[in-house]
Design goal:
- The structure holds 2 protein chains of 2 kinds.
- Chain A has strands at 3-7, 10-12, 18-25, 33-39, 45-51, 58-60, 68-73, 78-83, 92-100, 103-107, 111-115.
- Chain A is mainly β.
- In chain A, the strands form 2 sheets. In chain A, strands 2, 4, 5, 6, 9, 10 and 11 form a 7-stranded mixed sheet that branches.
- The N and C termini of chain A lie far apart (40 Å).
- In chain B, 0% of the residues lie in helices and 48% in strands.
- Chain B contains no helices and 10 strands.
- The model of chain B has no long low-confidence stretch (mean pLDDT 96).
- The chains are: A mainly beta, B mainly beta.
- The A-B interface holds A 35, 44-47, 50, 59, 61-62, 95, 101-105, 107-110 and B 1, 32, 34, 36, 38, 43-46, 49-50, 55, 87, 89, 91-92, 94-101.
Chain lengths: 117, 107
């Protein structure tokens, strides 16, 4: 059974940093492209970032470019999102999602990030 | 970047009703279109991929159609567990944008 478990969320002040992790199990992690998708309270889904299976290709949404960094450790079956210079508008539930032929076929349960003073 | 627009934003329907949700892309995306539903407090769940392919385990009352810029998700006979928010998403390369969502409520 595929499992994606996010961690690292919490409350942080504007301008602060946070590192999210996603532990993967139940599939061959190194074979899959991975993504972060977020959802602000009461709002819709927003794609945040993509990383290829080998980490050779990375993309970001314009809203986080230059502030967030996606990475992965295939030996540890883990995906990461380093978030710097956080803003109130970054407050959201952050999901890691596995990409399969362009669709997000498995999602974690999400981790809540709250940016507030 | 490709923009996705869903309609309607909300919809009230009854058990047993046939419901259709539409999604329009700002440029042609062939059949690179997926549908998800999401219940409150839960992660989204993939329903349809590549415009018309039913994800494994998804009931056959769900169907998708369309190509190019216009797509539809149809639920043939609403069941209680179908009341949720529905999102389309294009997979025509990153960025992978979503529609704004359609909230399906019980009438």
């Amino acid at each position: 059974e595929v499992q994606l478990v996010e961690s690292g969320g919490g409350v942080v002040q504007p301008g602060g940093s946070l590192r999210l992790s996603c532990a993967a199990s139940g599939f061959i992690f190194r074979d899959y492209e991975m993504n972060w998708v977020r959802q602000a309270p009461g709002k819709g889904l927003e794609w945040v970032s993509y990383i290829s299976s080998s980490a050779s290709t990375i993309y970001y949404a314009d809203s986080v470019k230059g502030r967030f960094t996606i990475s992965r450790d295939n030996a540890k079956n883990s995906l990461y999102l380093q978030m710097n210079s956080l803003r109130a508008e970054d407050t959201a539930v952050y999901y890691c999602a596995r990409l399969w032929f362009g669709n997000f076929d498995d999602w974690g349960q999400g981790t809540l990030v709250t940016v507030s003073s | 970047d490709i923009q996705m627009t869903q309609s309607p934003s909300s919809l009230s329907a009854s058990i047993g009703d046939r419901v259709t949700i539409t999604c329009r892309a700002s440029q042609s995306i062939s059949t690179y279109l997926n549908w998800y539903h999401q219940k409150p407090g839960k992660a989204p769940n993939l329903l349809i991929y590549a415009a018309s392919n039913l994800q494994s385990g998804v009931p056959s009352r769900f169907s998708g159609s369309g190509s190019g810029t216009d797509f539809t998700l149809t639920i043939s006979s609403l069941q209680p567990e179908d009341f949720a928010t529905y999102y389309c998403q294009h997979s025509y390369g990153p960025p992978y944008s979503f529609g704004q969502g359609t909230k399906l409520e019980i009438k």
